[in-house]
Design goal:
The chain has 77 residues and is mostly helical. It has one domain. It is built from 3 helices and no strands. The chain has helices at residues 2-29, 33-38, 43-70. The protein is elongated. It starts with a helix and ends in a 7-residue tail after the last helix.
Length: 77
């Protein structure tokens, strides 16, 4: 169970980084990499956006859980 938790944590962290890089490209260069790869109204694009959003919520939940367990702000990994 511990291995599964670590794998899911790593996967969500990677997805959050991918999402952040995509938003950086949108903000700086007005280039949406996901839209470019999968098309403007693609089902796969929506899946990618949904996975990135779910990973963000998961990362937030894990961060808050660590914060409340230790009663301090945890260091960013």
């Amino acid at each position: 169970m511990r291995l599964f938790s670590r794998i899911m944590s790593l996967a969500s962290f990677v997805l959050v980084i991918i999402g952040a890089l995509n938003w950086l490209l949108v903000g700086v260069a007005r280039f949406d990499l996901v839209r470019w790869l999968f098309g403007p109204k693609s089902l796969w694009g929506r899946v990618v956006y949904s996975l990135v959003g779910t990973a963000g919520v998961s990362e937030l939940a894990m961060y808050l859980t660590r914060m409340f367990r230790t009663r301090t702000v945890p260091a960013v990994p």
